[in-house]
Amino acid sequence: MQISSIFVCAVLGALLGGIWLDRSFGTAPCLMLLLMILGIAFAMYAVYRTVNQE
User: Fold this and answer.
1) Which residues in 18-35 are b (16+ Cβ under 10 Å) and which e?
2) pTM
3) DSSP 3-state assignment of 32?
């Protein structure tokens, strides 16, 4: 349960942040894609650390 919530929160936060920034600056979809890539990378790293910690 913890691993899935980490992944979902990281990706969803990056997606929503990217959409908000794209609407604010009119750069759609550049910032959303950039933040999605970073969010997925962070989520994978967080899941990796959680799995190796247990």
Assistant:
1) bbebbeeeeeeeebbeeb
2) 0.85
3) helix
**pLDDT under 70 in the chain at which residues?**
54
| 54 three-state secondary structure | coil
What length does the chain have? Answer: 54
DSSP annotation of 29 reads: T
Counting the structural domains of the chain, the total is: 1
Closest CA to 18 of 30, 32, 8: 32
Q: Find the Cα–Cα–Cα–Cα dihedral 54, 8, 39, 46, rounded to 10°.
A: 0
Residues 19, 15, 36, CA angle at the centre, nearest 5°? Answer: 115
The residue range of the domain holding 30 is: 2-53
pLDDT averaged over every residue in the chain = 94
